Every structure is written in C-alpha cells, then in structure tokens.
C-alpha cells in the first residue's frame, strides 16, 4: 500500500488530486490546470463572439464568472477531460445509453472518475486489485472485485456522475508491484475529517486524563506530607510528654529525698540543691537498706547472746525481747519506706498540678 501514490485533500483542489491519483504521480499542478481553464474560457468567448460582440448574449457572457474554475481551486469536467487528452485518455459517461449498450463488466475496465457537485475522485485498478483513491480518505481503500459493481451503483444512487477512463494509463511502480502480489487491508481508512475529529477528541481526553492524574498525584503528595507531619508531631508530643514525666519524677524524688532527709539525716546525705539521677538514687537507696540490714543483724546477734546468757540462769523462760525488738526495727524500716513512697507520690502530684497551672497561664 505504501507504493500507491495518494494525494490527500488540500483546499478545494480535488480535481488536481483526482488526476494525479489516477496517473499515479504529480503530473498536474493548480497553475497548469488554471492555464487549461483559461484556454477553455477563451475558446468559449470566441464562440460567443461569432454571434456579435454587441449582442446581449455576449455582454452577459463577459459579465459571468468562469464556468471552468473558481478562486477556491475547483475545476470543471472540461478541464479534467482536456488534461487527460494530453495523455491520450478520454472520458465516457458510465451510465450513458451508449456505454450501457456495450454491457462491459466494470471489473474489466482500468479506472473511473467520480464527481458529486464540486468533488472529484478516482477509482483505479492497480495490478489485479481495485482501490478507491479518494483524496478525502486518509489512504487508499481496497475494493474487492465482487464489491466494485455494488460500490459504483451506490455512488450513482447518491447522485454521483461516473466517467470511465478509456486509453492506456502511464506505467507506475504500484501497478507493476501489485501485478506480482496481492495486498490485504485489515483496517479501512477513515475520512480525514473523522480522523482529525478523533485525534482532537483523543487529545482532549488525554489532556483531561493528565489533569486528573496531576490532581490526584498532587493531592496524594499532600496527603502523604500531611501524614508524615502528623506522625512527626505525634512523636514529638510523645517525646515531650516522656521528658515532662521524667522531669516531674526527678523533681518529685528530689523533693521527697529532701523531705525524708530531716528524719534520716544520719543515714542518707543531704540532697538539697542537688539533681540526682536515677542511678544515683538507686545506689543511695541500696546503701540505706544495707545499713538497715546491718543494724538488724547486729540487734539479732545481741539478742541471741542475751538469750544464751538468760538460758544459763533461767532455762525455763522463753525469750521475749528479741522478737519484739526485731519486729519494732522491721516496723520502723517498713514505716520509713512507706513514708518515702508516700512522699514521692505526693510530690509527683504536686509538681504535675503546678505544671498544669503554668501551662494554662
């Protein structure tokens, strides 16, 4: 199909496209066809002048525009017929009584020229196959032999005038190539207007789709950025809360240690004005409990020595002082531990309330 010469429509130069598609090459230009049209106009003028240049018909003829061409690029059948005479070709009306009496099967012809109003196009046989070379199509349209007669009949019903091209057409590459091979057409060509409309519609859909995708991508990015920001804020709030709780706990422990140091100043050094870490606090508490255990062991040893001495003089009496003293010491130790825990709790609540009050201010 690529070897077939096919001019597409430009302006109203369909007569030029029709001739060049028929001859399979750039044989005619608008200038050459205009020259033929002017020659025809001059011949008509001379014939009209034979009746007298002063006659009413002649003056009317001069005032009328040319019937062989116009400014849009249209050319008449007379221009096309005279252009084909240069190549030894002539046109015969397909539905004329003279041609119909010949009873020639259309597939036995070589080419046709079709005209409806101001549009011209060629149907030609290349090799062993027929092609519609209408310049309004995006490319050549393959026509089967069985469909050719129906296609021409349909054109006649639509008002087309069909002309049979008689004579030997010039040789062309497409005709030689298609004599050896046959082509198949999977998709029929569309009208140029339909293709342009379809391409425009595709561009519009593509533009709308790109806008939607860009909008979705942009909102998606905003959503992702917003989610990341929310996560970062949540983490920062958690860290701030943890830091606040840790600071509150340290202040509470410090206050509790300061409060308890008044009662156990001999056992635990003063912590006023000192910020204790959790490790230092743990070590001091361990030292405190170790001292308490040492005291309890010393008291127990003293009690056991007293019991031994008491048994030697009064073997029937049961020891009563050791258990009571141990219980009192343990009670004192547990009482101080409970007091320490209570002080920590009260201090922590006090500090939190103060922080809340400051935050509200």
Would you kindly provide a written description of the structure presented here, covering whatever features stand out?
The chain has helices at residues 14-23, 30-49, 56-63, 77-85, 97-102, 145-157, 173-180, 192-260, 278-313, 321-360; strands at residues 90-93, 111-116, 119-126, 129-132, 141-143, 161-166. It has 361 residues and is of the alpha+beta class. Helix 2 (30-49) packs across helix 4 (77-85) and helix 8 crosses helix 10 (321-360). Residues 259-274 and 312-334 have low confidence and may be disordered. 17% of the residues are buried. It starts with 13 loop residues before the first helix and ends with a helix.
**Number of β-strand runs:** 6
Structural class estimated from helices and strands: alpha+beta
Distance between the termini: 88 Å
Q: Give start-end ranges of low-pLDDT stretches.
A: 259-274, 312-334
Mean pLDDT: 77
Strand content: 5-15%
Rg over alpha carbons: 58 Å
Q: Which sequence of SSEs, written as H and E, runs from N to C? A: HHHHEHEEEEHEHHHH
Number of helices: 10
| Major sheet characteristics | 6 strands, antiparallel
Helix content: 55-70%
> What best-fitting shape do the alpha-carbon axes yield?
rod-shaped
How would you write the strand order of the largest sheet? 1-6-2-3-4-5
């Amino acid at each position: 199909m690529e070897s077939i010469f096919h001019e597409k429509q430009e302006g109203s130069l369909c007569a030029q496209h029709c001739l060049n598609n028929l001859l399979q090459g750039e044989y005619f230009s608008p200038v050459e066809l205009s020259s033929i049209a002017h020659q025809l106009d001059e011949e008509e003028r001379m014939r009209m002048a034979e009746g007298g240049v002063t006659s009413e018909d002649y003056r009317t003829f001069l005032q009328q525009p040319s019937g062989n061409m116009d400014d849009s690029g249209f050319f008449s059948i007379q221009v096309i017929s005279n252009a084909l005479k240069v190549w030894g070709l002539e046109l015969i009306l397909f539905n004329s009584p003279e041609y119909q009496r010949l009873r020639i099967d259309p597939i036995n012809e070589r080419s046709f020229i079709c005209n409806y109003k101001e549009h011209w196009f060629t149907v030609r046989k290349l090799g062993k196959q027929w092609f519609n070379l209408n310049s309004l199509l995006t490319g050549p349209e393959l026509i089967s032999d069985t469909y050719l007669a129906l296609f021409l009949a349909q054109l006649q019903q639509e008002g087309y005038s069909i002309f049979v091209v008689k004579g030997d057409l010039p040789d062309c590459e497409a005709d030689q190539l298609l004599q050896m091979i046959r082509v198949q057409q999977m998709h029929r060509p569309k009208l140029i207007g339909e293709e342009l409309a379809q391409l425009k519609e595709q561009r519009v859909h593509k533009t709308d789709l790109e806008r939607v995708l860009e909008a979705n991508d942009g909102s998606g990015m905003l959503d992702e950025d917003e989610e990341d920001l929310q996560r970062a804020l949540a983490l920062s709030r958690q860290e701030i809360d943890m830091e606040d709780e840790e600071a509150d706990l340290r202040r509470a422990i410090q206050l509790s240690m300061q409060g308890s140091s008044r009662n156990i100043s001999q056992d635990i050094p003063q912590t006023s004005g000192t910020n204790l870490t959790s490790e230092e606090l743990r070590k001091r508490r361990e030292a405190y409990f170790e001292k308490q255990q040492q005291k309890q062991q010393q008291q127990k040893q003293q009690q056991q020595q007293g019991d031994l001495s008491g048994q030697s003089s009064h073997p029937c009496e049961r020891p009563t002082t050791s258990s009571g003293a141990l219980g009192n010491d343990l009670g004192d130790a547990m009482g101080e531990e409970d007091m320490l825990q209570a002080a920590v709790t009260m201090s922590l609540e006090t500090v939190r309330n103060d922080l809340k009050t400051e935050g509200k201010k």
